[in-house]
Amino acid sequence: MKIQRYIVGLYGANCYIVSDEESNEAIIIDLGEATDEIENYIDNNNLKVKYILLTHGHFDHIAGVEELRKLTQTKVAISKEDAPMLLNPALNLSEMVYKKVVCSPADILLKDGDTLTFGKHSVEVIHTPGHTKGGVCFKIDKVCFTGDTLFRGSIGRYDFPGGDFSTLMDSIKNKLLVLKDDITIYPGHGDSSTIGKEKRLNMFLRDLMK
Ligand SMILES: [Zn+2]
Known about the structure:
By secondary structure, this protein is an alpha/beta fold. Helices cover about 20% and strands about 30% of the residues. Strand 1 and strand 2 form a beta hairpin.
């Protein structure tokens, strides 16, 4: 499995292209902008993008979806709670700070415990509300894509509509910190880390560790 990261858009959101090297099947996790670099990477590596998986519905993670959807005929998946954000610039927060982002409806509505496959890999959907109501993380083998729920050294904001501090902390504690310490996390912004490192070093999780 190969993971390629691109940092895109106004807010430097991570877009991950995860591919299975045998079958060339791939998924994209969050797509804040469909840059030439991303499109070239898909082309040059002959990737068949099976799904665009969205950790949540904020515009900085979804603004590139429509462009790439047209090019690759891929299916777009988001949690059922965040699905309305694809359609509504007020809900995806683009209205205030950016050009209005409006996507077509999702092809697949995700819920906790769902699994999707690409190549020989399976993607487990973990519902982690708190940043948004329908925030999800995607666990694949020994890695977990944590969206704006858990960052290296920080946690997601909980002051946007649908966000809630204690819900976010419960999600991190009960859904993410229960993963093995050697699981690598790939957040929605910033660099990767591991569950073990975050348990030891993330100041925001100190109270959860008592
Ligand atoms: Zn967000």
